[in-house]
Amino acid sequence: MKALLCERWAHYSELKLVDAPKPVLKPGQVRIAVSHATAGFGQTLVVAGKYQRRPPLPFVPGTEVAGVVREVASDVTAFKPGDRVVAALDWGGYAEEAVATALTTWPVPDGVDLADAVNVPLSYGTSYAALHWRARIRSGETLIVFGAAGGVGLAAVAIGKAAGARVIAVAGSQERIDLAIRHGAAEGVIHGSGDLGRQLKELSGGRGADIVFDPVGGLLFDQALKCTAPEGRILVIGFASGTIPQIPANLLLVKNIEVIGFNLGLYIGWTPVDERVRHAARMAEMVQTLFALIRRGELPPLHADQYPLEDFVRAFDTVVARRSTGRVVLKISS
Ligand SMILES: NC(=O)c1ccc[n+]([C@@H]2O[C@H](COP(=O)([O-])OP(=O)(O)OC[C@H]3O[C@@H](n4cnc5c(N)ncnc54)[C@H](OP(=O)(O)O)[C@@H]3O)[C@@H](O)[C@H]2O)c1
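Above: inputs. Below: predicted complex with NAP.
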């Protein structure tokens, strides 16, 4: 089968498109004919060996796929060949066939395209679980989203809006703010122009935001501390800026602020102790909720650019150069 292979920790442009053997189906797994896989910033870190989790070399990257079930292990009863599914994988998604544990595979309802469904488990899932499970978002709250035109950021804008929050988007250009507004933000601020923390605080009624969703880190995190309301919450999602912020604990004390770490990996078996069994029911319920919101038109597709697998370098170039919006998708087979 056609697959992208990572032979050593390197820049994504050094991945090799190869003819690889099909992965072996183990107990508890389903084999998926992959139609789409997401190409997020996180995968550029994985292949460079800079992610918190390192697959054994050589490996096929790609952790979020949509497709059709081709085969199931004899102990799997939840799926059958022909089912349309999305799955979170440990790795192995950038290939014509992938195997996933049935616990991290979910059915795609009729009426939802696989190209739209592929973003659900990890991209929409990250934003939903962070905002609902960890930050306990409530209707009427103010939510500031950094990186609001990016993969998890755009998802957070739409999830926040669907939860009844007033969403303020932060992004790098007016065009990117406009996209966030089309996905549910009430307004937006371009970062890099003036005192961002102060502008955001003013837009949040002078008191600050109830929740700040931060997938960027670096200097933006310092602004998050400025624009969070007393008793507010800051969600630490990622470090797209490349800089992990240091937290002055005195500010947390003075403003009664919670800084909340969030790692979707905990719920899908990516932590040193694999906890996917423990969280399977909760994940399944969340994925079902997300699909219900999509079918009701409350969550728009993340409007990703699509590239054929062969064009993976161009796909990742747009992500790293911050030209992409939403989630970029690799089209693998029809
Ligand atoms: N915790 C979790 O469970 C989880 C799950 C998924 C992803 N992540 C992490 O979340 C981060 C974002 O992932 P993603 O897939 O959404 O990436 P993405 O699509 O590339 O979006 C990141 C956004 O960050 C903004 N950005 C980048 N550098 C910046 C800087 N120096 N200053 C200000 N803004 C900057 C860019 O927007 P502008 O150009 O418009 O500013 C870009 O759209 C990554 O670190 C990823 O590993 C974490």
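The CA atoms of residues 12 and 44 lie 6 Å apart.
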